[in-house]
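Subject: sequence -> structure tokens, single chain

Hey, anyone have a minute? Need the predicted structure for the following. Not urgent.
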Amino acid sequence: AAGGGNASAPPPPREILFVFLDTTPLVTKADLLRLHYRLSADALAAVAAAVDGGLRDWLAATLAASAADWVVVVGHHPVESAGASSVAEAATRGRLRGMVAGPMAAAAAAGAAGGGAADGVVYVSGHEHDVQHTVVDGVHYVVSGGGSLVESSAQRQPGTRFSVATHAFWGVVVTEEVLSLQVVDYAGRFLYQTVV
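Reply:
Had a minute. Here:
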């Protein structure tokens, strides 16, 4: 170094990859999709076939090619949830697990083993009317649905770390070292925090 010092170069900046998915075509209720997209039954079937055929492969390739330190995938419908809607919509959740959970778990496993870039993988959703944090196969599943009608989140499933039925939101804090998730209620009280 100039001047005889031991100055070292600063570490490279950390990166976050955000992936936004339209999960509505994965919903198994054809009538709901037809109303949402205003599609005929034939067009709806074509959309479903295209999504089924390509989403998992595209997501897997996108996550595998990423050098980001953290991966955040966002979709309206939850992949993992013990909320009332997801329990009632088990078929939809099954389709989401089949297409989304596998590629995210692979990215989390590669990062944990040192063979991939991701230090943490998060899936953020809404749809439910509560706030939840569940970890399955190294993926952090966050439900942020405490902004309108509040429904009970008394049901729990394996991997559930936090759930509350109150008006609340998730805050995300990112530094060079960590990605932190925090639940803040309507009165500004911190209810929960975790580091990814």
